[in-house]
Amino acid sequence: MISAARRGCKARLAEIPSEPGCYLMRDGEDRVLYIGKAKVLRNRVRSYFQSGSGHGHSPRIRLMVRQVCEIEFIVTDSEAEALALESNLIKQNQPHFNVLLKDDKKYPYLCITWSEAYPRIFITRRRRFRSPLDRFYGPYVDVGLLRRTLALVKRVFPLRQRPQPLYRERTCLNYDIGRCPGVCQQKISSEDYHQTLRQVAMVFQGRNDELIDLLSAQMERYAERLDFESAARVRDQLQGLDTLTADQKMSIGDSSVSRDVIAMASNGRVAAVQLFQMRAGKLVGRLGYMADAVASASDADQASGQVSEQYRDLGRILQTVIEEHYSQVEGIEIPPELVLQHPLPQQALIADWLGEQRGRKVRLVVPQRQQKADLIELVVRNASYELERAQRSSEQNLLATEDLAQLLDLPVPPRRIEGYDISHIQGSDAVASQVVFIDGLPAKQHYRKYKIQSSSIRSGHSDDFMAMAEIMRRRFRRWSTAKAEGADLMALRRSSDSALHTGGMGDWPDLVMIDGGKGQLSAVMEALRELDLHEDLVVCSLAKQREEVFLPGARDPLESDADQLGVQLLRRLRDEAHRFAVSFHRQQRGERMKRSRLSEIAGLGPRRVRELLAHFRSIDAIQLASVEQIAAAPGMGPALARAVWDYFHPHDEQPQEPSADAMEPEDGLMADLAS
What we know:
The protein is an alpha+beta fold. 44% of the residues lie in helices and 16% in strands. The chain contains 22 helices and 19 strands.
């Protein structure tokens, strides 16, 4: 079915016109993979599928092309219209492959979930798979500064402090001390809470001065209406913003014009791009991007006569960053001036597009002297430090994989390395972990965790050898089936040569590392013999005691030094597999202990235990609940609710519920303090 769709996709190329517009590439499940623009649609789209062109594309684009099954296009009257349309389509569809950053977890973002009735605000390193209404601010280079800013904002503005409410029927202490507006009990309307979040968003948009003016006017209106309590609350917010301004901003002598300064440092393969946000002569934010400096040429490269040959590629990278960044922000966040290190291939077009986004003219300046040139030098210096750090890390990982290949006598350095570990306590809650390193770095999107299913492994009876063999059978069962059906494993591996591949048959490891000694390694090899994969996989083990590396069939460990780069890489992999396994084991053990504690209550079966925990969310909440509150849970009746209450209060009597008229105003606060 997919191959037929791919053939239809090739036939579709002949239908694409030679006009400006946007193209949308979809996979076999009709999901949008990539959205692009072009001055000549036919030439641009065909460049993805021409024979031999794949070698010029990055691994991300090669992976995308292999999944394309349908191509849509939208014709526009001009290239400027195509640029604006591309921005809107990307915002609406959030395609998986429209990502400039090589690693979307390198820099953190701040996310506000505008799609929710009561939005959350949090720091994340992933900006995929969320609602198109949600907004991401960043990426921020200084995560420590971002965390301090968010903590201060949560003290200045009343915001929801917890992702889930602590109690079901009343507010917590945060509401009583003014830190939270009572979102869990809807003490504040959704519209009013959105208004508060819009003020918070202004802080992360670099619009502090506008926010201060807005709050000052609001405080004066409250004072004129003699609403001194509200005026005092706004006054406290203004004082908090003054603290934020003093702590977060570095002043640079300049006019009151707001501008973004964009510059980069490149080593020919990777470019580190820095974007300094300056508002009223003050530096309010520093964003960072890592771009591929050898990406395939775009239509911008074909523009002639606009930039010199020397700076065309550098200007193309800056233009790509500008398109990526400003397509994700609101128009009000775009400053009236952009100061650039190099001219852009399509500078006039980008200026017009930014002006349409902002609603007012935007100037693009490439300074040559005086103060703006000094700003460019400052940004370039910061970008150079970031590039050096990335380069050192990349070179260190390359040396480590080369040393590991030499140690294990591999023909090429291993790119994808998988590590496995087992975690349990005397056989109880036995689990396993699979961690993946790609090019020497953790690739957490490929991590997997397993619950050991063997009935022989139970509390009081552990068998690490059996557990490890079980995991190998489950992990490589698909590959064994494919080989038994006559598939060529080498061909499958070549067709999925991208480490970015996350599904199908694209997860073959170059090296498998087992945490353990010769015993665990022998059990793994026996399982692989059953799968007929023992001659296809490269397997080793790393013993904890002396950091010794063992190969299958060898009596003695390899001659190695615990401090050499290849062994250090295996140790990092082993430690990460151990951490991941232990954390999963603790999670499983904690859930079992919760269930076992409630299962001691007569008449409370597994199903009702699950429903009770889902209703109250924690054992502590059940313990604090009254008989009436427990009886209101699904599947509970008065008699069973009384049995649950008696279990947690064996020597107490059910307290009388006070009436609403008799309850003192501070009762909620005292209950929180008591809890």
